TrEMBL record:
Residues 54-133 form the Exocyst complex component Sec8 N-terminal domain. It comes from Phlebotomus papatasi (Sandfly). The lineage of its organism: Eukaryota, Metazoa, Ecdysozoa, Arthropoda, Hexapoda. This is Exocyst complex component Sec8. Keywords: Exocytosis, Protein transport, Transport. GO terms for biological process: chemical synaptic transmission; Golgi to plasma membrane transport; protein targeting to membrane; protein transport; vesicle docking involved in exocytosis; vesicle tethering involved in exocytosis. Component of the exocyst complex involved in the docking of exocytic vesicles with fusion sites on the plasma membrane.
Amino acid sequence: MESSPPPIKPPRREKYSKETTGCGLLVSVIKTLDASETNEQRQKEKLKIEREFKKSDQLLNELVSKHDGDLTKVMQLFGKVSTHVTMSREKIHTVKENLHACKQLLRCRREELKKLWTDAVQQKYVLEMFDQM
């Protein structure tokens, strides 16, 4: 496997709060649209959101095309790692099953040895009794 430096996390452009990301942004948009009194204000808000969405979409497309090679390489590596993890899990599962089977066999073996030992002790006492007669 070739040695390459680990990936570098790109710097963030700006800090985002709950209000500007995810569900917080959606709730904020809904509140703004609900608070708008006229259709004109709602249309302005809608156009503003659409423009921001287009900017974000364009930026995302640029970043994806800029880092296409890296993304492809990462996806291939992820696929290999995922395959290795899956195979390892299957092997571990097999080993666990084998260990469980060995444990069961050892229990049976222990019971057999215990029985043989008690038989040997009984035989010893029987021989001692014959010697005394």
